Amino acid sequence: MADLTQSPSVAARLRDLPKVWLLIVMIPVLLLIFDPGQLWPTLEFTAKAFGHTAIFITFAVLAIGYLKATGAEAVVAKAFQGRETRMIFLAAVLGGMSPFCSCEVIPFIAALLAAGAPLSAVMAFWLASPLMDPAMFLITSGTLGIEFAIAKTVAAISLGLFGGFVVKSFAGSALFAEPLRAVSQGGCCGCGSPFKGTPVWAFWGESDRREVFRDTVLENALFLGKWLLLAYMIESLMLTYVPAEWVATVLGGTGFGPILLGALVGAPAYMNGYAAVPLVDALLAQGMSNGAAMSFMIAGGVSSIPAAIAVWALVKPRVFGAYLGLALVGAVAAGLAWNLIA
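Structure (tokenized):
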């Protein structure tokens, strides 16, 4: 007879499920109970929206897999060599294009700071890195349009440059003196130093690199898939249940207020850069101003939990506060600029 005492309970199994997948299941169940008529429209909306971005998700996960398998992250380290001004420019550009995950940023930046890389270049990379990468660009352009994706990329690089040169200007002040914590924490998944070795662009000739490519593609396909499914469900619910007049009143218009509010709301409310795209799409459809949408995404991207933890783990609170302050100012500036252009 089987030992049933060793079998996990249903409650224990539910606790072990990733919370995002649990929410994806729970939303249709709750609709079935409380508003059955909305169940099919929500599922239909989610399926159509996911199908629309499927091509972009495919390109995104293949691009990330290629960059990981070739070891292209090694190129990023070169941005932190040479004159400080040059380092800031390269760090901002590469930060806005690099495919780093949040756990890789921690050991990467720790090694650079320990090796004496200037905080100005590191800050430029920190501010730009969570805002854009190849996958996010493709998904943003597929949902919000290529113009918004390009504008957000320019904003990410500009924010990196702004933060880098502000830190450079006040490098001798008490605010940025001895920025590192006494004991720096390591990464969250044991990622190795990304600037060891030389990239191998034709990676398919090596079995271990092919394995990295396969694992990375599967991991990111599941990651993007779950977050976008949840986000599209929430987008459908927002369009149905959140009054458009309320959004238009609070976050609409062309003035400074909605843009500042977008940044202030985006900072604590952000889930991650991928899930935010459909949510912003829904808010825009309900009257959110273009500038508020941009400030929401810029402020929220920098202050999202993975990005913020990467900074908090390494530097003292005063430097972390400067990081958030620079992000808020840059987000408002980006929102004002995009409002004028769009």
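Residues 312 and 320 are 6 Å apart (CA to CA). The chain is about 70% helix and 0% strand.
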